[in-house]
Amino acid sequence: MASPQLLVRRPEAPTTDSWSPAGWRTLPITQQPTWPDRDELDAVADYLSGLPALTGVEEIRRLREELALASAGKAFVLQAGDCAEPLGMAATASARAKHRAITSLGERLTRELHRPTIGLGRLGGQFAKPRSEPFEAVDGQLLPVFRGLMVNEPEGTALARQPDPYRLLSCYYTARQVVAELAQAGGGVWTSHEVLILEYEQALTRLDEVTGEWFLRSTHLPWVGDRTRGVDDAHLNFLAGLGNPVAVKVGPSATVDDVLRICALLDPHRRPGRLTLISRMGQQRIADHLPPLVRAVVDAGHPVAWMSDAMHGNTVRGAGGVKTRHLDAIVGELTTFVEVLRGHGLEPAGLHLEIAADDVTECVGASVTDESQLGRNYRSLCDPRLNNEQADAVVDALVAAMHR
Ligand code: PEP
Ligand code: CO
């Protein structure tokens, strides 16, 4: 009989000897809450590390293979969901609705683009938010900002805004429900979220005994946002040792050097499907800022899947100071994105959207004719989302740009 050693599969990309799931703790980190009691946080994280993983290694590997197809123009990713995911019963209802929306938009894309759609939810973990300011004045009182339901509550009181480490557990149990709900709804939608609170993510990072690789099993596809993508910092270095496919948002402040260093750190073996870059430049800036980055990545030989988040670079303050986004700007950015990628001999790999499955009035366009309509049904916990009609319009515009 073969000795057990002979059955051990070699990892495709051996995790470097120096990487460990806790290694990020020695590095600079940004966008973190001021936790009232770090021992309590560590105790919660320790408890979490003994709970079952939320995603499976084989599923994660399969997504990496699908993303490889997307980077080669043979599949198309639709990544969508809330900016900040709700908790509890609201989360499961929202997940069901998102599953429906992603499936139906995905079917349209598959039909129109003649390639399979990979459905990816901002779901089952999208609970922590980076913010541009750490404090805000509410009724004359300076309060910590809302950082997502993994950290605190949106209500404008000191009590609600106090970070509470036990929220990591509520988020875990909600994510578990969401994953079950997605499976029950028929599957076909992978999970993804921004990794921000690394105590949570570290606790759900598990060793695959078969290959010796580490996998983040809180999700299928973790991404790092534009505000935390420092290449010497904790977040990107946490991603570096994972066997998962990973993504990074790239905004207008990203330089060629930044992007090449991100690619070198996260995709040293130039493996298709490993790295997705999500461009979020803004309509005004994409034509100037994206081309040199795409050129440099192509020249460096990284088979990156380039996706467009045409939402986050187009956030403006509308009437009454409320955050909104105009469909015209979103469509404008998407159209330029397709032109830039094609101009470099690449195919767009996907579209990243913030959507609500209900008839919200958070973005301007289609039946939300102007900013005065925003107050009708504005419910987002964080950024403004597209309603169904607006999401359809964006998908139509993308299809038109892809057929040009
Ligand atoms: C987000 O996706 O909600 C987000 C904060 O994105 P970005 O990192 O692109 O600003
Ligand atoms: Co957002």
Summary of the model, kept short:
It is an enzyme of class 2 (transferase). The chain is an alpha/beta fold and 404 residues long. It has helices at residues 38-48, 57-71, 89-113, 158-161, 167-184, 198-203, 234-240, 256-266, 286-299, 327-343, 388-403, and strands at 76-81, 117-122, 135-138, 141-144, 189-194, 205-208, 213-216, 221-224, 246-250, 275-279, 305-309, 315-317, 323-325, 350-354.
| Strand segment tally | 14
- Cα distance spanning the termini: 60 Å
Can you give the mean pLDDT? 95
- Rg, rounded, reads 20 Å
CATH fold descriptor: TIM Barrel
**Poorly predicted tracts of residues:** 1-14
Helix content: 25-40%
Structural class: alpha/beta
> Strand portion, in percent?
15-25%
Instruction: Identify the bound ligands.
Output: phosphoenolpyruvate, cobalt (II) ion
Q: Could you give a short account of the major beta sheet? A: 8 strands, parallel, barrel
| CATH hierarchy: architecture | Alpha-Beta Barrel
Shape: globular
CATH class reads: Alpha Beta
Q: Going across the biggest sheet, name each strand in turn.
A: 1-2-5-8-9-10-11-14
Give the number of domains. 1
Helix count, per DSSP? Answer: 11
Per CATH, the superfamily is Aldolase class I
Order of helices and strands: HHEHEEEHHEHEEEHEHEHEEEHEH
Region (Disordered): 1-20
Keywords: Amino-acid biosynthesis, Aromatic amino acid biosynthesis, Transferase
Protein name: Phospho-2-dehydro-3-deoxyheptonate aldolase
InterPro entries: Aldolase_TIM, DAHP_synth_2
